[in-house]
Amino acid sequence: MLPKLNPWVWLALAGLGEVFWVVFLKFSDGFTRLAPSAATIATMAFSFFCMSQALRVMPMGTVYAVWTGIGAAGGLIWGIVMEGEPAGAIRIACVGLIVAGVLGLKLGS
Question: What percent of the chain has pLDDT over 70?
């Protein structure tokens, strides 16, 4: 029996799953390393499952936009904080726009 979660909670979990699968995908080195490759597939499955739960009651366009927004923003933040990627003002402003879009979709729902 699945827990009865708010669809926005399912969607947030799906977005976090997307962040982690892209991190594991990077660590998999093109699916040449077994453990990170398996973690990529497992977190992809988790992310898609959570997204499917949100899709049961939420509009597809909203779910997909929020899911990709969380993944894009989270991946960029991970890259800056953990991978030493550039953190220029334009990159930070753009991720802020992504977050604002996600919040706008939440407020507009």
Answer: 99
